[in-house]
């Protein structure tokens, strides 16, 4: 199964790093879309089917928490697999985010951490992901 992914982060550099990390994870990717804030992400979701959204929390215009509230309130997107990829450290805010049924990957992260979390939230088995790419090797920290 090829995953269509939406990466939402206000930093173009971080979006590129996440995209690169996805390519190192050994997971079959379909289309990868990007958005710089929650408003742009909602527009992308309205135009494209995605299986997984990777959201930053702290963004201008509409932050990740507000975006997540919109996603979970939507009949169409309610079941979307979501991973928060952020430096957010507020226990209160993290608890509010987890209440929406998401997993959280803290920056910096390794390809292996992201891969394992993707497998967890999408329900894909480890066997479904390629084992040709040694995600544990090298010194990757994003």
Question: How are the SSEs placed, and which strands pair?
Answer:
Layout: E1 3-8, H1 12-24, E2 29-35, H2 38-47, E3 52-55, H3 64-73, E4 81-86, H4 91-98, E5 103-106, H5 111-122
Parallel strand pairs: 1-2, 1-3, 3-4, 4-5
Could you estimate the helical fraction of the residues in percent? 25-40%
Structural class: alpha/beta
Largest sheet: 5 strands, parallel
If classified by CATH, what would the architecture be?
Answer: 3-Layer(aba) Sandwich
From the alpha-carbon coordinates, what is the Rg to the nearest angstrom? 14 Å
Please write the string of helix (H) and strand (E) elements. EHEHEHEHEH
> How widely separated are the two ends?
26 Å
For CATH, the homologous superfamily is named as: Response regulator
Spatial arrangement of strands, main beta sheet: 2-1-3-4-5
Beta-strand fraction estimate: 15-25%
* Total number of helices: 5
Q: What is the number of strand segments?
A: 5
Instruction: Look at the structure and give the CATH class.
Output: Alpha Beta
- Extract low-pLDDT stretches: 131-142
What quaternary form is this? single chain
**What's the domain count?**
1
CATH topology: Rossmann fold
The shape, in one word, is globular
Mean pLDDT: 88
What would your notes on this structure say?
The protein is of the alpha/beta class. The protein has helices spanning 12-24, 38-47, 64-73, 91-98, 111-122; strands at 3-8, 29-35, 52-55, 81-86, 103-106. The protein has a 5-stranded parallel sheet with strand order 2-1-3-4-5, sandwiched between helices.
């Amino acid at each position: 199964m090829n995953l269509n992914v939406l990466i939402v982060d206000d930093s173009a550099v971080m979006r590129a790093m996440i995209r690169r990390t996805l390519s190192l994870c050994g997971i079959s990717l379909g289309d990868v879309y990007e958005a710089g804030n929650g408003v742009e992400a909602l527009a992308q979701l309205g135009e494209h089917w995605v299986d997984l959204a990777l959201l930053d929390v702290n963004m201008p215009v509409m932050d990740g928490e507000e975006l997540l509230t919109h996603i979970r309130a939507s009949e169409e997107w309610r079941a979307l697999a979501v991973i928060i990829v952020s430096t957010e450290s507020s226990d209160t805010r993290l608890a509010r985010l987890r209440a929406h049924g998401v997993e959280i990957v803290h920056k910096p992260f390794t390809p292996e951490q992201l891969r394992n979390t993707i497998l967890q939230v999408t329900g894909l088995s480890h066997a479904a992901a390629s084992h040709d790419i040694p995600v544990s090797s090298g010194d990757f920290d994003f």
